[in-house]
Amino acid sequence: MSAFQQQKLFGVTPPISTAEPTQKEHDATEGLVQTLKDLGLFESDEESRKRELVLGKLNSIFKEFVTRVSLRHGLPESMAEEAGGKIFTFGSYRLGVHGKGSDIDTLCVAPSYVKREDFFSDMYELLKARPETTDITAVSDAYVPVIKFEFSKIPIDLVFAGLELPAIPDDLDLADDNLLQKLDERDVRSLNGSRVTDEILRLVPNIDAFRIALRCIKLWATRRAIYSNVMGFFGGVAWAILVARVCQLYPNAAAGAIVSKFFRIMHKWSWPQPVLLKHIEEGPLAVRVWNPKIYPQDKAHRMPIITPAYPSMCATHNVTESTRIVTTQEFERAADIADRVMIGSGSWIELFTKSDFFTRYKFYLQIIASSDQAESQLRWSGMVESRLRQLVKQLELVDHLDLAHPYIKGFDKVCRCINEEERSRAAHGQFPLPREEPPADTPGTSNLYTSTFYIGLSIKAKDPTSNSPRKLDIAWPTRDFVSMVKAWDKFDCGTMGIVVQYMKRGALPAEVFEEGEQPKPLKKRPKSRNRSNPAPEENPTKKRRASVTESVSLPSGNYYAPLDAAEVLRIRDELKDPLSPFLKSDLASSGSGFMPGTPLPEDPTEGGFNLKTNDDAKENGGASTPLLQQQTAAGDVSGRTGGGPAMRYSAAAQRNGPGSPANGTTTTSGTAGAAGKVMSPGSSGLMYGGISGINASSPRTYPEIKLRLAGQQPTTTNGSNSKPVDGTPSGALP
């Protein structure tokens, strides 16, 4: 058999080229390796030995676990000691492309009578009791159940599979498909991690070139923020399969050439044409194998990359339309850079420039998961992170939104809070200024653990032929997302929290930027005076009169942050107005809560409000038109949401107290509901105490809650910092 025929066996098509590397390609490869070394991508010999020692200890612990469970099941001591148990590595460590601080993916294989429940109880406790173990958490309900922890400061991901064997020999080979018989789907998925890794190595013609190229691609994907399976991008297995496929197409190429060709091929790839390392095989099991001709779900995969081991699965089923667009854009950028490198006019270091995610978009969604215990926060934040992809899919359906781009990781913080107000603000991303930490035993102090995630929102360009206003309404996707994560069976409303709020680029916290990276806020141009009503020259400090047609504008920087029931009560007390019986009963039965988003001035006429009163109109000779629309019941205020007529802030109502009609006039633009409540048009659900637009699933802003509880209806302009009247995460678009 010729060399060409032998090389043709690698992959599902013949190679594109079998040419040997040129000197220029060798030089490019040397430059690439040196760049990777300069960036610290290779671990030291000492760390390599430490990893081997850790794996040896884990193997001993796992065998001890199998022996304990065997004895508990009534096996004789001699048989229990011979039951065995073996660990296998997979992922980047098995492929030989791990770097400093990277985790070790480890598979634990046990005999048939050791169950997954035993693993997540007994094995978990054995590991937790070891002094080398830190930050341990078990995720037994994950797609691939896993125990995550650090052992001697080495991150470990431990998965489990029980085989239909009475004992596990030390020379067990997982390549035999018959080992999969009688296993459930989760065991098959756990085993497939190791089986896929071994199959990739078997199907690559030049392992050394493959490893260098894969190190480069993994670093590039990480720096460009497109390396995260859970967020809808490609994970480690997918990147390895892609690089292996390019190696099959150029079996003799040097690593530098592989990288260059990789980006151009992937940018031009005809998705959803699948990427395969070998033909999909049938096997001995009655299990599902990836097949878009049979399964509609498989046909819906946007960028299918198929695992080579039986049963073949799609490693990229999580990809959304937004992440597909972002990944394709990054392929194109990298291809241009790599082409310049290969002709000698570029540098490899350009490839690894950090992503501009936090400066790319004008608007962002901030999702904050919080908890009061470190261990519960690991589980809670992990669950929220795993569901963010569903929020992205829902956002993609919103009008005027081009894409919803999730960032690949969250930002974890621990805040030492001295009171409940600080806790609520920290849960909304507003941490106290730096100060000396109070002692741990200080009465009333407590820790709050938060994990913050971000989604960039790309707005469609406005149609130049259309003059109609546009509104970006993301209320229902965020509401559905919050409901979904709260439906988690381990969710504890007393100790866990979730906040979704939108913000502009200039409001992003400093923690998301590296030093010198945070953009300076733009200086706002001062607003010109109303030429039709200027202040007299001789008294420039005199308050300017205003017309009744101007509306209330909320201060900038107020995010959509839910207010809890206690805070609504506090605001109401502050306004010295007794609660209506409707508000009392609704707040008492509500478990969702509302909390203030940002510190605001106590006087609503300060801090950016532009309040226009009925008295201003009378002094200007205008008609005494009632500016407050309300029901006669105390505290019951109604108003149209979204695009309804503007409501005005009434000075008379402020003087007379909440619930008092302005000029004796009573009107309502809502629909009366049960028990005196008002249903606002365009909204759903009962309103708190008849306060229109306020319900358990709709976030509110602090100043609007305050105005509504005072018996007034705020309105907003369509300025850049305006918030919609209905209080949902939506707003007017430019």
UniProtKB/TrEMBL annotation:
GO cellular component, as recorded? nucleus
GO biological processes: mRNA processing; RNA 3'-end processing
Question: Which coenzymes or cofactors are required?
Answer: Mn(2+); Mg(2+)
Enzyme type, top EC level: transferase
* InterPro entries found in the cross-reference section: NT_sf (IPR043519), NuclTrfase_I-like_C (IPR011068), PolA_pol_cen_dom (IPR007012), PolA_pol_NTPase (IPR048840), PolA_pol_RNA-bd_dom (IPR007010)
Residue ranges annotated for the Poly(A) polymerase RNA-binding domain, each copy included: 356-519
Write out the biased-composition intervals (Low complexity).
Answer: 656-676
| Polar residues: compositionally biased ranges | 622-633, 712-723
The family database entries (Gene3D superfamilies) matched by this protein are listed as: 1.10.1410.10, Beta Polymerase, domain 2, Poly(A) polymerase predicted RNA binding domain
Q: Does the keyword Hydrolase apply?
A: no
* Gene Ontology terms, MF aspect: ATP binding; metal ion binding; poly(A) RNA polymerase activity; RNA binding
The segments labelled Disordered in the record are 426-446, 513-554, 588-734
Q: Which residues form the Poly(A) polymerase central domain?
A: 210-354
* Protein name as catalogued: polynucleotide adenylyltransferase
The species this protein belongs to is: Powellomyces hirtus
Instruction: Name the lineage.
Output: Eukaryota, Fungi, Fungi incertae sedis, Chytridiomycota, Chytridiomycota incertae sedis
